[in-house]
Amino acid sequence: MGLMRVLHVAPEAYPLAKVGGLADVVGALPKALRPLGVEAHVLLPWHGGLEARRVGEVAFAFFGREERAPLGERVEGGVRFLLLGVEGFDRERVYGYPDDAERYLRFALAAKEVARGYDLVHAHDWTAALLALYAPTVYTIHNLAHQGLVDPAPFFHWTGLPWTLFHMEALEFYGKVNLMKGGIVFARRVTTVSPSYAEEIKTPEFGMGLDGVLRRHAGKLRGILNGLDTEVFDPGKDPYLPAPYTREDPSGKARAKEVFRERTGLRPPVLAYVGRLDYQKGLDLVLKALPRLLEMGFRLYVQGVGDEGLQEAFLRAEEENPEGIRFLPAYDEAMARLAYAGAEAVLVPSRFEPCGLVQMIASRYGTPPVARAVGGLKDTVEDGRTGVLFETYHPEGLLYGVLRLFRLGAEEMGLRAMEKDFSWEGPARAYREVYREALG
Predict the structure, then answer these.
(1) Residue 1: what pLDDT?
(2) The pTM of the whole model exceeds 0.85
(3) pLDDT tens for each residue of 291-322
(4) DSSP for 208-243, written as a single string
(5) Residues annotated as binding site for ADP-alpha-D-glucose?
(6) Distances in Å between the alpha carbon of 400 and those of 63, 346, 388?
(7) Which positions ≥6 away from 180 have C-beta within 8 Å?
(8) CA atoms within 13 A on the CB side of 145
(9) N or C: less crowded end of the chain, CB within 10 Å?
(10) In the chain, what percentage of residues exceed pLDDT 90?
């Protein structure tokens, strides 16, 4: 097989638009595929505020009428990004609007026209799942919790697809159309972002109602661990750090700890949480374990935005313990990098975790994770060697994990964690193999 042309279709991609780890994957994987003979481009909605050069127009059918959308192009880090200016995307945020289903269905219908110029579509999450009905597709589930549920009447009016798809249960899910289910059923191959998560989602506990569908289609399901963009996350040349450092010469890490202490006002040992404020991430465990952690002399740094209830709880905790807790309710890349380098440990106590990037980034910066033994956390943290895993979803489980980490030697584990290869090289080879299978 000669050069393979693949179109990644996604709602976000670093560095153009980022909400979470999905953006990091879509931004980094095409670069890693290029040396393997795969020409991969990325197609995104033309979100408000994104600048690009207009290169054409796409005509597509929506609600039985022809619509037209401008097509933009932008090259970043050697990756060609295409932007589709369909109606409804002239806003700053990627998700979180009442008309998200309509917006992303419109985007997918326009995207299928762009896909005609490629051998294969690599569709990401529910927002691009519809493409599996129209083109040879590899479909990646980044998080099974977000499935894209739509009322059937508007769905079939908007897309013009036959109602038989609903009645034969290819799309039906408790009276709704489930876009993710459609992606699983119609894609030639389905991947998810870690081997352990691929096994977990076939069980009722983690399957979010789709475990039966995933068991039926298990033959085409693969778990491929996400990589990390090791050029972006490199303590040896990170512009956000006060001094560079490596495993061989970790002296700059001491300077990062000093600056982190100055900026936060927290004395060590500091435990850090960086990421979305979401109950999926186990933050209720952190809040319940907090009094005991403070009693034992630990300090806590929390950074992130999301659930308002969690935000209020951490603001209140900081007010009550100004010497022991610092909460930054913001997306601040500079402070995030400083926390990865300057904290004594990171907390990743997730209820479930498809892959997780925080534990990989922190490991690369020599800061060991205390993580729950689920999904990608189980696949990336070597228990007792590069971090600590705990099983029980309970505050006592988290406390036990933290105490065990420091008893075994947090600093030594951090240095061992820096040896791990989290690059995209291996995952990219695995994806190329899946692409070849999908194209038969």
Answers:
(1) 54
(2) yes
(3) 999 999 999 999 999 999 999 999 999 999 99
(4) TT-HHHHHHTGGGEEE------TTTS-TTS-TTSSS
(5) 18
(6) 56, 14, 10
(7) 125, 126, 129, 141, 144, 146, 147, 148, 210
(8) 10
(9) C
(10) 95
Torsion of CA 8, 51, 304, 232, to 10 degrees: 60
Question: Are 382 and 359 in contact, with CB atoms under 8 Å apart?
Answer: no
Task: Identify which of 274, 250, 251 has the alpha carbon closest to the alpha carbon of residue 264.
Answer: 274
CA distances from 118 to 40, 44, 56 (A): 9, 15, 17
User: Quick one: tokens of 358?
Assistant: 């925080």
The token pair at 47 is 């979100």
Residue 88's closest CA among 75, 104, 72, 74?
A: 104
Tell me the C-alpha distance between 110 and 60, whole Å: 5
Name the β-bridge partners of 5. Answer: 39
Distance from C-alpha of 310 to C-alpha of 97, rounded to nearest angstrom: 21
Distance CA 368, CA 376 (A): 15
129 phi/psi in degrees, rounded to 5: -60, -35
Per this entry, what is the length of the chain? 440
Q: Say which amino acid occupies 208.
A: M
Please state the separation of Cα 335 from the chain's center in Å.
20
Other residues' Cβ atoms within 10 Å of the Cβ of residue 221: 20
Question: What residue has token string 């010497």?
Answer: 323
What does the longest C-alpha to C-alpha distance in the chain come to?
66
* CATH H superfamily, domain 2-226+422-437: Glycogen Phosphorylase B; (3.40.50.2000)
Contact between 30 and 40 under an 8 Å Cβ cutoff? The reply is yes
CATH homologous superfamily for 248-416?
A: Glycogen Phosphorylase B; (3.40.50.2000)
Show Cβ contacts of residue 431 under 8 Å, excluding neighbours closer than 6 positions.
29, 33, 38, 122, 138, 191, 224
Output the known binding site: 18
Q: What percent of the chain has pLDDT over 70?
A: 100
Contact status, residue 133 vs residue 159, Cβ threshold 8 Å: no
Residues of the chain with CATH 3.40.50.2000: 2-226+422-437, 248-416
Question: Are 429 and 32 a contacting pair, CB within 8 Å?
Answer: no
Of residues 108, 239, 119, 229, the one with CA closest to residue 177 = 108
Helix (H) or strand (E) holding 247: none
The first and second tokens of residue 402, run together, are: 């933290």
Q: What is the pLDDT of residues 22-65, one digit of tens each?
A: 998 999 999 999 999 999 999 999 999 999 999 999 999 999 99
Residue type, 410: A
Q: Provide the total of helices (H) and of strands (E) in the chain, helices listed first.
A: 17, 18
